[in-house]
Amino acid sequence: MDAIELMLTRESALKLQAPGPSADELERIFASAVRAPDHGRLRPWQFVVINEDQRGAFGDLMAESMRRRDPTAGPGELARDLLEQGIRGMKVWPFDPYAAATSGHDISPEDLRAGVSVIEQIRDAVGDAMDIHLEMHAVWHLPAAIRIAKAVEPLAPYWFEDAVKAHDLEAAARFAASTHVPAAMGETLAGRWTFRRLLDSGAAQIVMFDIGWVGGLSEASAIAALAESYELPIAPHDCTGPVVLTSDVCLLMENLQKDILPSVALAYDPAGTLDGYAWIKHLMSAEGADVIFAHDAETFKKHKQSPEFYE
């Protein structure tokens, strides 16, 4: 398999199993990763290895972090908080914990009710004011995915994302045909030709791609144009940080072809600290987008309070 074919057929696997990579394999993985395009020679990478015997401690650390942030918050409270911030859409994946029991082949009535209850709490708290994007992470096989979809449909989710794996577009198309809720798919794919097969199959009503994985802004723009030719909307994906997020914003502005708010502010703070702010300023002008990255709280506030920001 040559490099191009490998890139066009690669997939991300959510569910990982032992054994993990050996020390030699990890060295090869890291050596390959640092060969990725590096704008301005910033070398923006850091690798953290969590070994088998450390996974439990890491999980405990993450759980404790969530409890410290808000020990009482549930889905409904989170939805209210997001609405107060002006955010009208939230992504949830309440069914993921139950896939491992059957490797995604089935879901018990009890687990199905537990997953549905998360979405019910959101609807009870804020009604239809919040769009609910159901992330399914492609951990389910087709029958179970359809069963989950049928249970959730009455609660009017905005989309079902990656209900099944993208390597079987026929199965993905059968899922999409089984529900009136739009199916979002594509974040694990690369290259416009792969996306053409996705669109021809009817497996996606919302075309999702990750600029950092798909081949950069030029390839993402081509895929956006392809989706438009099929009368389908796009939903750029990001789980990496402010650079890809900025690119997503610029791409969306280009495809919207209309003015929205003159400036967009986004905070990127994955560690729950004050050292990860990203301030995005988008000016609909001939100069394009002016992007400022502030790496501390004071700089963040300085740019936010600057009169020039709102010109």
Query: The CATH topology of one domain, please?
Result: NADH Oxidase
CATH class of one domain: Alpha Beta
**What's the story with the biggest beta sheet?**
6 strands, parallel
Q: What oligomeric arrangement do these chains adopt?
A: single chain
The name of the CATH architecture of one domain is 3-Layer(aba) Sandwich
Query: Structural class from helices and strands?
Result: alpha/beta
CATH superfamily label of one domain: NADH Oxidase
Mean pLDDT: 78
Strand order of the largest sheet: 1-2-3-4-5-6
| Percentage of residues in strands | 5-15%
Helix-residue proportion = 40-55%
Query: What is the rounded Rg?
Result: 21 Å
Outline, from the CA principal axes? globular
List the total number of helices. Answer: 12
Low-confidence regions: 257-288
Give the terminus-to-terminus CA distance.
52 Å
Q: Provide the succession of SSEs.
A: HHHHEHEHEHEHEHHEHEEH
Q: Count the beta strands.
A: 8
Describe this structure in words.
The protein is an alpha/beta fold and 311 residues long. Among the domains are: 1-71, 3-Layer(aba) Sandwich (NADH Oxidase); 259-311, no CATH class. Helices cover 43% and strands 11% of the residues. The protein has helices at 3-9, 23-33, 55-69, 75-84, 109-126, 142-152, 169-177, 192-201, 211-214, 216-229, 242-256, 297-305, and strands spanning 89-92, 131-135, 159-161, 183-185, 206-210, 234-237, 278-282, 289-293. The strands form 2 sheets. A 6-stranded parallel beta sheet has the order 1-2-3-4-5-6. Strands 7-8 form a two-stranded antiparallel sheet. A hairpin with a 6-residue loop joins strand 7 and strand 8 (289-293). Helix 4 packs parallel to helix 5 and helix 8 (192-201) runs parallel beside helix 10 (216-229). The longest helix is centred in the middle third of the chain and has 18 residues, at 109-126. 24% of the residues are buried.
